[in-house]
């Protein structure tokens, strides 16, 4: 009799354990579905948080080129001065520290960048190198607009038999979820603008440090500056 009761109890416990396991996974799947749905909804409204316009930035880049021929540093100063005077600090936070440059190793390419703006949905940087570099653009959750200030950039997409060529004043638009090979020739610098989900681009921008260069001071400063600028923008309500 005792044996039958024990077996019945064990059977009941096993049945409840199986039900509990199924319930846990149903809850997890439900939460995952809610998360995916929320992300999809946020993606449809992210444009309401954009402040910059690609056409305006390209116009500004061309104005900087015209006002400072053969003077890259002058172009950068022109761009930063224009942005800080045009956009109030109550709308968006900008980084005016033009000496705050860090190395950028991503997709096999190497250069240096100055982060003018970073938020959840936008970033604006100066990127380039006097030496030249080439690599993979990465596959991103944001549209990228590369406004050439000096030098020349070449690009190539799979299936194309001819290269794309971009010179001063040109803009190279890389739509989200697309990738190319690109090359920046000696002395090429650009005003780069991205709009989309910026935090999801960070692994691409930092992975080479962890797997190749082991330049941890650059990892620290890149993370510190990016986090600082995103936080400063959140303080003024800029997502």
Automatic annotation (TrEMBL):
* Main subcellular location: endoplasmic reticulum
Return the Pfam families for the record.
ERG2_Sigma1R
- Note whether Transcription occurs among the keywords: no
- Highest taxon in the source lineage: Eukaryota
Q: What is its EC number?
A: 5.-.-.-
Keywords in alphabetical order:
Endoplasmic reticulum, Membrane, Receptor, Transmembrane, Transmembrane helix
Q: What is this protein called?
A: C-8 sterol isomerase
Question: Which source organism does the UniProt entry give?
Answer: Rickenella mellea
């Amino acid at each position: 009799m005792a044996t039958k009761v024990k077996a019945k109890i064990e059977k009941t416990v096993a049945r409840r354990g199986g039900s509990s396991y199924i319930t846990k996974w149903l809850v997890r799947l439900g939460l995952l579905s809610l998360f995916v749905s929320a992300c999809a909804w946020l993606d449809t409204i992210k444009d309401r948080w954009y402040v910059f316009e690609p056409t305006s930035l390209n116009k500004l880049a061309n104005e900087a080129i015209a006002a400072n021929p053969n003077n890259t540093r002058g172009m950068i100063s022109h761009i930063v001065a224009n942005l800080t005077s045009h956009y109030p600090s109550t709308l968006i936070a900008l980084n005016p520290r033009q000496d705050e440059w860090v190395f950028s190793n991503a997709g096999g390419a190497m250069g240096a960048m100055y982060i003018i703006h970073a938020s959840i949905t936008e970033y604006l940087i100066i990127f380039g190198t006097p030496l030249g570099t080439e690599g993979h653009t990465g596959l991103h959750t944001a549209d990228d607009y590369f406004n050439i200030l000096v030098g020349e950039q070449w690009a190539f997409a799979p299936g194309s038999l001819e290269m794309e060529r971009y010179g001063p004043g040109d803009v190279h638009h890389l739509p989200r979820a697309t990738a190319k090979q690109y090359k920046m020739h000696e002395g090429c610098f650009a005003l780069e603008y991205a709009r989309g989900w910026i935090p999801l681009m960070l692994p691409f921008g930092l992975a080479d440090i962890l797997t190749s260069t082991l330049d941890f001071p650059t990892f620290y400063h890149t993370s510190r500056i990016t986090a600082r600028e995103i936080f400063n923008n959140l303080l003024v309500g800029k997502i």
